[in-house]
């Protein structure tokens, strides 16, 4: 060897699904933000969504799989309706890779006295790391414990109303574990602030996914955030109140047209039965690999960009 500097090679990490490790390039079409099981939480907001009809959900996942769906990220963390045992059963029976999360959702989805909200940042980080490295809380005594594959955090509508302690704990865990962090935003608000916060706490912007950003379809902001390295998640395809024809679809067109398809991830975020096709004739999970994919093709978006937005980007982010 002469004095040529060696180029550091980044070895992709295995992606942690509820059934064990998966190679990032085997995930296929991936819904970047969804919910496939939510149990009723006594004491939480009575209007919180519940998804607990196993057979309907399984059928929905099977249809997703049959139409070419490969994986999805489930965004329900511990304490607000997650059940890792059931996620594992759904994954096994449907053959869809489900990637579970740890972290925290909005305050209203928990009972008033839920322990996490009065814990210290270090206890929060310890809990998140144990769910990533060892087992989801509810599966730790199972013969085959289920592990989380990413961290989800939720911002409230103002920074002051968001839990600084939970954000600090989550950022600390994300920095240590180098794990993807999905950030729930209230209609895109505080996105810039969240990115700066995590960056200042040592989390690589390339590990951040800002959720529901198409509810704030400011193209200049989206391009700035993409340049900073984060992924932007869009999911209002079936939410008429956000006028997807006027906002979401033009946003996708502009972002791909200007070369930012490597920073956009698509999802359907179906946290309610009305969206499920097996339960109430909604569009269903399978619309991502069918209708949505077809429309992207019809728009003239390249096969490569479509592949990135429908799985490639999130897989890359999960694998580091
Ligand atoms: Zn969601």
List the SSEs and their pairings.
Elements: E1 15-17, E2 20-22, E3 29-34, H1 54-66, E4 69-74, H2 84-94, E5 97-99, E6 101-103, H3 121-133, E7 150-154, H4 164-177, E8 181-184, H5 191-200, E9 208-211, H6 219-228, E10 231-234, H7 248-257, E11 264-266, H8 277-280, H9 288-298, H10 303-319
Parallel strand pairs: 3-4, 4-5, 6-7, 7-8, 8-9, 9-10, 10-11
Antiparallel strand pairs: 1-2
Bound molecules: zinc ion.
Describe the structure.
With 320 residues, the protein is of the alpha/beta class. The protein has a single domain, classed as Alpha-Beta Barrel (TIM Barrel), CATH 3.20.20.140. The chain has 10 helices and 11 strands. The protein has helices at 54-66, 84-94, 121-133, 164-177, 191-200, 219-228, 248-257, 277-280, 288-298, 303-319; strands spanning 15-17, 20-22, 29-34, 69-74, 97-99, 101-103, 150-154, 181-184, 208-211, 231-234, 264-266. The chain has a 6-stranded parallel beta sheet. The protein has a 3-stranded parallel beta sheet with strand order 3-4-5. A two-stranded antiparallel ribbon has the order 1-2. Helix 1 packs across helix 2 (84-94) and helix 3 crosses helix 4. The longest helix is centred in the C-terminal third of the chain and has 17 residues, at 303-319. The chain is globular. The mean pLDDT is 96. Bound molecules: zinc ion (ZN). The site of zinc ion has 5 residues, from loops.
Return the structural class.
alpha/beta
CATH class: Alpha Beta
Could you tell me how far the N terminus lies from the C terminus, measured between alpha carbons in angstroms?
A: 29 Å
- What level of helicity do the residues show? 25-40%
Helix-strand string: EEEHEHEEHEHEHEHEHEHHH
Give average pLDDT, whole number. Answer: 96
């Amino acid at each position: 060897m002469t004095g040529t500097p060696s180029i550091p090679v980044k070895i992709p990490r295995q992606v942690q699904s509820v059934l064990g490790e998966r190679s990032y390039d085997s995930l296929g079409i991936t819904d970047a933000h969804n919910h496939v099981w939510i149990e009723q939480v006594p004491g939480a907001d009575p209007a919180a969504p519940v998804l607990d009809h196993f057979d309907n959900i399984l059928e929905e996942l099977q249809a997703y799989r049959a139409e070419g769906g490969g994986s999805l990220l489930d965004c329900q963390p511990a304490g607000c309706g997650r059940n890792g045992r059931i996620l594992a059963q759904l994954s096994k029976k449907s053959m869809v890779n489900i990637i579970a999360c740890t972290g925290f959702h909005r305050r209203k989805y928990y009972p008033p006295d839920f322990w996490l909200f009065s814990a210290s940042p270090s206890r929060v980080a310890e809990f998140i790391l144990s769910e990533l490295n060892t087992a989801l809380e509810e599966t730790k005594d199972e013969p085959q414990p289920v592990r989380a594959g990413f961290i989800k955090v939720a911002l409230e509508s103002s920074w002051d109303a968001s839990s600084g302690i939970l954000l600090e704990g989550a950022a600390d865990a994300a920095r240590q574990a180098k794990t993807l962090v999905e950030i729930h935003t209230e209609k895109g608000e505080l996105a810039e602030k969240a990115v700066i916060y995590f960056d200042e706490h040592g989390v690589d912007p390339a590990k951040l996914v800002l959720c529901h950003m198409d509810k704030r379809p400011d193209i200049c902001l989206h391009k700035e955030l993409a340049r900073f390295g984060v992924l932007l998640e869009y999911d209002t395809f079936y939410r008429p109140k956000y006028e997807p024809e006027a906002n979401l679809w033009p946003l996708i067109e502009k972002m791909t047209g200007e070369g930012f398809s490597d920073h956009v991830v698509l999802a359907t975020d179906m946290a309610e039965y009305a969206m499920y096709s097996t339960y109430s004739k909604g569009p269903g999970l399978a619309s991502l690999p069918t209708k949505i994919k077809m429309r992207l093709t019809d728009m003239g978006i390249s096969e490569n960009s479509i592949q990135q937005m429908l799985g490639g980007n999130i897989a890359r982010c999960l694998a580091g």
